[in-house]
Inverse folding.
């Protein structure tokens, strides 16, 4: 009996002297904020929350949730639930800009709550969230959630320019096409091409982290971006052979390759968590977003039409349609280049290479997106 009492007593002393319990809450919140912002998947953070009562209490602190990084919300569409929705709402009210954008995309496209979705995206965009700005520009260009007359090209260009200024590659490319074609803005072919070169160079540079880029919109030639890289340009035939060998089915994912406009291989970027969610969400519905509606043909996008004939189609074949020029450019390099035009009529050198203005292959092949 005495020995048991002594044991309990010594156990209490041990608990009291636990150094973890001695840490002030502020310090624990600071550590949890770091974990929350650098989590590579939702389970990283969930496993912290369930590890002890103190982490569970402090982990849901507003300060911690406000720091949530994009990958924390990489929820699988099949795991979507009311509790996942509640957690996202909690992060939104804590001020997480990533949660605003992620939930905005889900509400707009998946839950078809257009007003709430667009306003959440706008909330993120106001805080200079580049993907949110770009997504809002796509909404404006397409008049998504409204009628054809709701298209506002000038607003689309203005928002796109803001995202481009922040270095968003698809926005730079979109803006380049707008300027080149005089779409929603006064035509300026030279400036448009300069932006297309910049988008391609940034895409290439992102595959080679050692290459440093100048600040956005510099007036420099593309050769300055390729510093030290020895790139081999492949012919169209070589590209097709290597793509079908390295990337059967031309699906997305690590290990897959994307042909840069300079004719060299760069890895295909992983879809962002919100795009992955949309892909899975509509994939569960057999890729059918509703009667008369189509999905964006770029397999890494996942955006559906919100009204029939909303997206623009490829003018060369008319068989594919895209939410944006960014998606068209990705899909062209990934697979459509070989599906759109018969191989026999490929020109040998349609690709504008380094030092030749870097013309987008989609343009060189006469493959433009037009309103359907
Ligand atoms: Zn798209
Ligand atoms: Zn086509």
């Amino acid at each position: 009996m005495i020995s048991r009492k002594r044991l309990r007593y010594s156990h209490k002393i041990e608990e009291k002297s636990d150094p973890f319990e001695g840490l002030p809450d502020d310090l624990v919140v600071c550590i949890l904020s770091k974990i929350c912002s650098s989590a590579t998947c939702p389970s990283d953070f969930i496993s912290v929350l369930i590890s002890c009562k103190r982490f569970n209490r402090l982990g849901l602190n507003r300060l911690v949730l406000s720091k949530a990084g994009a990958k924390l919300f990489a929820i699988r569409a099949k795991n979507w639930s009311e509790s996942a929705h509640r957690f996202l709402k909690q992060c939104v009210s804590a001020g997480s800009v990533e949660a605003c954008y992620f939930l905005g995309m889900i509400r707009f496209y998946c839950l078809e709550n257009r007003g709430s979705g667009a306003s959440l995206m706008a909330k993120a965009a106001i805080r200079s969230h580049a993907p949110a700005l770009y997504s809002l520009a796509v909404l404006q260009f397409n008049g998504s959630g409204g009628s054809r007359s709701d298209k506002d090209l000038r607003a689309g260009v203005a928002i796109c320019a803001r995202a481009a200024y922040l270095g968003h590659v698809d926005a730079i490319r979109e803006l380049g096409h707008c300027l080149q074609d005089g779409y929603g803005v006064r035509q300026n072919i030279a400036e448009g091409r300069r932006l297309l070169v910049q988008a391609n160079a940034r895409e290439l540079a992102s595959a080679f982290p050692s290459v440093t880029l100048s600040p956005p919109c510099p007036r420099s030639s593309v050769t300055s971006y390729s510093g030290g890289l020895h790139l081999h340009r492949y012919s169209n035939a070589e590209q097709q052979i290597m793509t079908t060998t390295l990337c059967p089915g031309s699906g997305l994912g690590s290990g897959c390759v994307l042909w840069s406009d300079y004719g060299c291989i760069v890895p295909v970027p992983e879809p962002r968590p919100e795009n992955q969610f949309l892909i899975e969400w509509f994939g569960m519905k057999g890729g059918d977003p509703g009667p008369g509606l189509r999905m964006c043909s770029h397999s890494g996008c996942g955006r559906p039409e919100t009204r029939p004939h909303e997206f623009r189609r490829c003018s060369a074949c008319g068989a594919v349609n895209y939410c944006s020029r960014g998606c068209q450019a990705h899909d062209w390099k990934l697979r459509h280049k070989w599906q759109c035009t018969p191989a026999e009529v490929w020109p040998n050198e349609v690709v504008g290479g380094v030092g030749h203005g870097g013309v987008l292959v989609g343009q060189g092949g006469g493959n433009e997106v037009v309103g359907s």
